[in-house]
Amino acid sequence: MAGRVSPGDKLPFFRYDTPYSAQNRFRDLLAEQAPLILVFMNNFGHPVTRTFAMRYADTYAGLRDGGFALVVRSRADKLARSIGPDTLPYPLLCDADGVLYDLLDIPQRSGGLTSYSLEAWQILRQAKKNGYRPPKDAVLDLPLTLILDADGTVLFCHYGSSLTDVPEDCEAMQALLEDLDLVPEEGGLPEAEDDGDVTIYTPADETPRIPGLEGRDDRDDTLDKTGVLRLFEDTLNDR
After folding, report:
1. pLDDT in tens, 160-176
2. From CA 189, how far away is CA 187, in angstroms rounded?
3. 190 prior amide bond cis, ω within 30
4. SS3 category, 121
5. Residue 93, SS3?
6. DSSP string covering 51-67, please?
7. Are 206 and 75 in contact (CB under 8 A)?
8. What does residue 40 show for φ and ψ, rounded to 5 degrees?
9. H or E element: which one contains 183?
């Protein structure tokens, strides 16, 4: 599949890296946490992404009937210096070269006025007071929010119109699940069928150096071009 997704579409299974573990199976994440809310944002160093990542962490207990994961355009090996396994209560999927962003046709915008909301402007204004300097002519991804069933079927899809057009916090995610009648019944959802993983990875010599990767033999699925940032580096240097 390629292009914008809609409810009823099915995402392919793949393997992904986080700052604290390598080559995780997306099928396992779905099986454990479905209905899974998957939010795509910009790199973790962007002030808007960082603000929402911390907000989701602070309110994570409010999401009672589903799972959550955040996807960022950042290098797993770089974030590994500051994000350990106990830093965030949810998975942080790293897709530095935008493999999934391209697959799902997530829109990009350049220029602040084309993608900033009032909330984003306020976040960025405060970040600039704290020393943040945005890169010139930066191209930013607009966000995408998905809710996925255990087999990767899209139950809900929202392509954001601004950088902050995502669930406000995890309590808002819980309310969304309830409004859509997606709260799992007792006993859970059926196990996902065992399709073959779709690879979004390249040879092992391009594998990021992150915990859990060394000593593994199944390295034929390393994240595609994870070692190369196509857009720009994390601008806050992960402070």
Report:
1. 999 999 999 999 999 99
2. 7
3. no
4. helix
5. strand
6. HHHHHHHHTGGG--SSE
7. no
8. -100, 130
9. none
The answer to whether 150 touches 192, Cβ cutoff 8 Å, is: yes
> Can you tell me which residue has the tokens 């402070």?
239
d(CA 96, CA 229): 6
Query: What is the rounded CA–CA span in Å between residue 206 and residue 141?
Result: 24
For residues 140 and 163, the answer to whether their CB atoms sit within 8 Å is yes
Which residue is it, tokens 């945005």? 134
- Output the six-digit token pair for 100: 């999934």
Non-local (6+) Cβ contacts of 73 within 8 A are: 42, 43, 95, 96, 98, 101, 141, 229, 231
- For 6, counting Cβ atoms within 10 Å of its Cβ (0-12 exposed, 13-18 middle, 19+ buried), the class is exposed
Instruction: Encode pLDDT of 16-64 as tens digits.
Output: 999 999 999 999 999 999 999 999 999 999 999 999 999 999 999 999 9
**Where do we find the tokens 């992404």?**
49
Between β-strands 92-94 and 67-72, what pairing exists: parallel, antiparallel or unpaired? parallel
* Calpha distance 39→165 (Å, rounded): 10
The widest CA-to-CA distance across the chain, in whole angstroms, is 51
Which helix or strand (DSSP H or E) is residue 25 part of? strand 21-25
Tokens representing residue 231 in the block: 């857009």
pTM over 0.85: no
